[in-house]
Structure formats: structure tokens, C-alpha cells
TrEMBL record:
Residues 238-315 form the Transposase IS116/IS110/IS902 C-terminal domain. This is IS110 family transposase. InterPro entries: Transp_IS110-like_N (IPR002525), Transpos_IS110 (IPR047650), Transposase_20 (IPR003346). Signal peptide: none annotated. The lineage of its organism: Bacteria, Bacillati, Actinomycetota, Actinomycetes, Micrococcales. One of its GO terms (molecular function) is DNA binding. It comes from Kocuria dechangensis. Residues 12-160 form the Transposase IS110-like N-terminal domain. GO terms for biological process: DNA transposition. It comes from the Bacteria.
Amino acid sequence: MSLVAEVVDAVVGGDTHRDIHALEMTAPTGATIATLEVDNDDSGYAQVLAWIAEHAPGPRVILGLEGTRSYGVGLARAAQAAGLVVVEVQRPRRSARRRGKSDAIDARLAALHTLGLDAERLPTPRHDGDREAMRILLSARHESAITRTRQINRLRALLLTGDDQDRTMARGALTDTRLGQIARRRGRATDLVEVRVRRAEARRLATAIAQAGREMRANRQSLEQLVAGFAPELLDKFGVGPVSAAQAIVSWSHRGRCRHEAAFAALAGASPLPASSGRTIRHRYNRGGDRALNRALHDITLTRWRACPRTHDYIAKKRSQGKNDGEIRRSIKRYIARELFRALEASAAP
């Protein structure tokens, strides 16, 4: 293993913020070469590139930035467009801040952290393009799903406090047909104020729920088109739909971000962790990693658990070996992570 300090002429550490960025250029020995503070805009990015060209002792320069997908995304994109290697740096821990905290100190800590990285395993930022489009759609879908669930719960609670017809509607599934019936209902002039207000609020909620459902279906279609253009073979896997496939692509990002399938499984929280004691030899769930990706694996597992003949045979085999359902699900999720990783790597092969 070779460290970054052994293969570069200098590194630049950056502490990014909404308005300004603080940077420090550091030699492989850890000595400070130069410091800079710029605005978080296009002119500031141009100033950074000119500053690097002026002060770098050689062409081999790596830029280590905090927040490459938030405040530092603009500088990261500008540096990558200029041909610089950009790596993602985590915020320093409290133990590393014994000398206090400032933008200049954090920039230096970012540079020192970059010098100590494995040169063959650099944490590069996630890609833009189709992957970023999928991430935006998934974020919008998640927000819509939470809002729609809350509205459904409110509508059911509202109907349960109404008359017999309202209570009957609250018990069944809120299909588009039933939502349309609720949205079209009108009261009588002789109704009490409470009844009129309840029905008006029920109409509003039914209309909003139906609209959210249409938006989520359109969102799913957009995700399916993007996935089909990026990695169509994912959609051929049993139980893998457009949403779970898009989440796998977003978390995987690009070829080389995860070194191998075990690293991808660890990212997904699907890697087995030993939980043995005495004569009991077993493994347990990994509660870390990307929980959105883990949730996608869980959805695929549930579909295969219900309807996949191969999975049924595997479940029967493991149960005969004394494994419980939790351990079996963990093994299936690990297999799915391997399957998705291989499909993604194959889709990105040059």
C-alpha cells in the first residue's frame, strides 16, 4: 500500500462553506506551502485554479474537499473539469481539533487527512449526469411518499369521525376510484358546520392524495427511463424495479468507487458481522452503511421471499440447517448486493 504523500507533489485541503472556501496547499512532508480564501462562486473557482498552478511544486496535485456534494460541489466540478484529482474528505473528529477550530485549521486537517489516504483507494466524489438526475428524483419521491402517507392517515382519521358512509369509506383501500368519490361529495344546506367542514377537508385531502399518486407514477416512469439507459440489465433481475435499481445506481455512483462486491455489500449494510459466542456460530445484520440502499435491498428481498422459486428453495434449505428467518434474509440481501454490484460493474465496463 502506498500513501498519497508518497506519490504527489502537493495536496490541497479545502474547508467549504456557503459563502467562502478556505484552502491550504501542503507538501508531502506536511509543511504548509500556501493558503487561500475565496468566494464560493465561479470567479473564486478560477482563482483557486490559478493559485494551484502558481504555487504547486509539481504537476501531481490532489484536492481534498469537505462537502463535495453540498457547499463544495461547485469547486469540485471546476477542479475535475480542469483535470485535477478530487477526493472526498470527512469532517474531522473532535479529537483532531485539540488546537481549536477555524476555517484555516479545518483546511489544514483536510490536507493532512488526504496525505494519509491509500493512493489506490481514493474516495472520489459521486458522479453527476444521469446518476444525479436519479438522486434528485429519488429525493422527490421520498418526500412525496412521506407526505402522501401522512395525508392518507389524516383522511382515514377524519372519515372515522363522520357518519356511517364516512366510516365505510375509511375501512376500505383508498383507491383512485374511492378518492374520486370522496372528492366529488357535496353536503346539504342543512348540514351542521362541523359536517360541512369535515367534508370540505376530506375533499381537499382526497384531491391531494390522488395528485400525489399521479406524481409518484410519473416519477417512477422517469426513473425507469433513466435506469434503462444507464444499466438496463438491472431491470431484468427478479424483484428489481425502477426505484430500487435507481437507488443502487445512485449509491454505487461509478466504477471504482467500491473496490469489490464486499465493499459494496458493506456500503449497503448487507455485510455479515460475526455474532458468535461459545458453541453458537452465527452472523448478524450490519446496521451501518447507506440505509437507503439497504432499504432497496430489503424491498427486493421481500419480493423474492414471496414469489421467487429459487429463493423458496434456498429458504427451505437454510431452515433445514437450523437458520432462522432473520439470518436467511441477511444472507439473501448479501447475495442481492453481489448480484447488483456485478451488473453495475458490467454496465460501466469500458
